[in-house]
Amino acid sequence: MFALVDGNNFYVSCERVFRPSLNGLPVVVLSNNDGCAIARSNEAKAIGIKMGQPYFQFRGLEETHGLVVLSANFALYGDLSDRVASLVAGLGPSHEVYSIDESFVDLTGLRCDLEERARRLRQRILQWVGIPCGVGIGPTKTLAKLANHVAKTAERKPGSYPEKLAQVCDFSRLNRDELADILKATDVGEVWGVGPRISEQLKEAGIRTVYELTRLDPATVRARWSVVLERTVRELQGTPCISLEEVAPNKKEIACTRSFGKPVEGYKDLEEAVTEFASRAAEKLRKQGSVAAQVLAFVRTSPFRKCEQYSRSMTIPLRRPTNDTRPIVQAALMALRAIYKPGFLLAKAGVMLMELTPDTVSQGELDLEDQEPDNGKLMTAVDNLNGRFGKGTVLVASAGLEGDRRNWSMKQLRRTPAYTTRWEDMPIARA
DNA sequence: TCTGGGGTCCTAGGACCC
DNA sequence: TCTGGGGTCCTAGGACCC
To answer: pLDDT value at position A385?
Structure first.
């Protein structure tokens, strides 16, 4: 049996912890550059603001509806997230932090009344941290997720589901018919793993509710859709296919990307941005104890504007895998030089580190030939200073062309050719 | 004027091999 | 009409998640 504990309207709830006067008001939290809504209070949802909706489309509701609009404060949310997660961990023997506002808990072996235990946890989190949560309980992670959806929706929209399921919903307590009724009342698109595309395809095939999805034969689902959806169907039928991951595996890619507040055209500005992205990414890389073998940089115009589109990326193989900021910045700038073309209003750029492997001591010490003499110590010192005095205290200066010529071997590049790809469909998830 | 920033997994199809 | 057969590796692209 699994539980999913999830903070309601999480970023908004975090803001309300420190500003209780926001309770009862429509509140949204905006993304970087105040671009679009990434969290909405129930009141904001009620006046029709959508997840991911651009701010300019609902600007003005401050005056007409008393909407409160806030810029995101991710440091605050991360801190409260840690506090919630540590309380959630007490619910069962093992737990997985799934996202900033969600944790799964394995309840196997607990002999107590699970619903009662969950309600007490919910109360404790509310009292000690100030964040209201929903809890879903079910025999698989997918069912726990669905139960959580029921718990939150029953609270927010009275009448949508039986009132007793509000806040905490334990599927294992329901009899066959009760569960069937709930699944029949739930749109197939609410299922974890069924996004907009699959949802549309299912509906075309006459599958509109979760109940109908659970009635499908897994083999048929696999043949017609995919093994991923098959797994989802099996999980809905009560067969666990997705296990708890207590320790987060190391990242396989590390990215740092930003949309610009205003379109950028000049090379100098891009160079500055890409240098910072590469430095931040390298920092994350060292934090997880990995080295990267490839560096990708990309630039793109805004897909939302009707201007001429330009979207390019380039991957540069590193001479040897490293987590040293300097060669990583140099590689990113080398890629930028190759893909930059003047005359476009660029809306976004970014750096990604790929082909990550664990940083082993031997890697640094056995191969002394082209090792920067103070590599490890210098980078550790940089990270410590930035940690103590704030991000950006110590920066790596953008390297000029001379530096690149000195450090980059074209022979190496030919052996492992760099390649360009279009960057038209950078995924931006929308709820 | 103005549209986030991260990630993961799966699969089809091409390249290449014998 | 009809165009071997089987395997591996790699990449692009699609789909999903928060």
So the answer is: 72
